[in-house]
Amino acid sequence: MKLKLVGPDHAGIECDALILLEFEGTPRPELASALAPFRESGEITGKFIEMTLLHSLPGHKARRILLAGAGKQDKFEVSSLWKLAAVAARLLKGKGVKVAAIALEAGFDSPDHVSAAVKAVIEAGWEPDQLKTNADKDGSRQIDELIVSVPAVTKSLEAAAQAGEIIGEASNLSRNISVEPPNKLTPMALAAHAQAMAKANGLSCEVLDQDRMRQLGMGALLGVAQGSAEPGAMVIIEYKPAKPAGDVRLALIGKGVTFDTGGISIKPSEGMEKMKYDMCGAAAVIGAMQAIARLKPSIAVTGIIPTVENMPGSKAQRPGDIVTSLSGKTIEILNTDAEGRLILADAITYAKQLGCTHLVDAATLTGAIVVALGNNQSGVFTNNDELLGQWMSAAKSSGEKMWHMPADDEFRELLKTVYADIGNVGGRAGGASSAAVFIKEFVGDTPWIHVDIAGTAWLDDAKPYMAKGPTGIPIGTFVKLAQNWK
Questions:
Q1: Domain limits at 138?
Q2: Among 341, 352, 440, 480, which one carries the catalytic annotation?
Q3: Is 450 part of a structural domain of the chain?
Q4: Is the alpha carbon torsion for 468, 473, 476, 479 positive or negative?
Q5: What is d(CA 450, CA 40) in angstroms, rounded to the nearest whole number?
Q6: Does this model's pTM top 0.90?
Q7: Backbone angles phi, psi at 389, to 5 degrees
Q8: How far apart are CA 406 and CA 422, in angstroms?
Q9: CA atoms within 13 A on the CB side of 316
Q10: Do 202 and 145 reside in the same domain of the chain?
Q11: 78, 80, 220, 239: most buried, per Cβ within 10 A?
Q12: Residues 340, 215 share a domain
């Protein structure tokens, strides 16, 4: 998509459609007379994501004006702009718009706002139809050019627009991978995606096969993989800045279960087809590493993807089995459907062995987090308040909603077992927290964030702002964390 940043004269922009923000209770003065009848009739109120498409308004060169309701001005955040711009872009692309513009006035023209608006338009163009015979393979149903109008064009805003484009493209890469069917996206196919991305962006990529993982002692991951005919793998992607700022080495770790039947503790058949989404954390790492390679932050970043298929084959691990993790800790398998935390345990231990100083993992880990937070916010768990502060700041900057959840030592009591160092489940109560505390067992004192994206990584139904399927979360926060590292 062609991208251009221009000054405040949005009325003079020649385009197919111009998006203007209309706040509730604060009508746009330049449109007062033209829109008076609509406001008097209650057709235009400024309520959030209310969309009114108008044609050939006097004083504007745009062929159409899309008046986008922005809600209450004091509640309008970066996440609000992202959603509003995405709704507008999806509406306009459905109308055949090729050149679109959006006006961001003073107060809503920060680098974060500009980046979010650009990212939203790019993400709004994505559709999950790659395998349909009538898919939009030539991009004929896409917005080709976006013009962003701001009060003053500056280098920081130009950089923000470019970052929004890069992160949006990375998000769509992640979504393209995530939507692939499990007969095509096996663990080794996921590793191949990582390798292709790394090669295209000048990153190093190593894939540990099952023999190498067995030599290293990754018993937790291999225990999950043994039930499938498809071999598992551990993928390591490296970004090294030309002039690193200090000795920080950030690890981004993504759960990569390419299909999850639950194993011997098999899931109900209804809805099981959705379990191809259990590798969205891994896909987010691939997308984030692409964006990081292009944006070039000043810290070293390592992307780590443990990837397996969880199947109930004749060699599958059983409830009651005990495996020895890479850390040396023994784990009693109480439920084979709690497999994500097992592969993350070995990935986290390996990240520490590589010398990573800070750890962030993202995983579609628990149904319990969906019960707690629904589908609007990802759950965040940590052992380090300073890293938590950086993460939450990055999330706000990117427009991705997160909520801090407890990972107190009391939850460790739920994981006690007579036969091994730790059990892999702790019961229904506090399930998201006990899962996080299981992972925490392998972290030690290393600053760590765990993000449970089970409720936010996938949309079961299309929304006005996004197609059905993978969302790309938390790529924006991954990248902003690396960019804004303190």
A1: 2-152
A2: 341
A3: yes
A4: negative
A5: 50
A6: yes
A7: -60, -45
A8: 19
A9: 22
A10: no
A11: 220
A12: yes
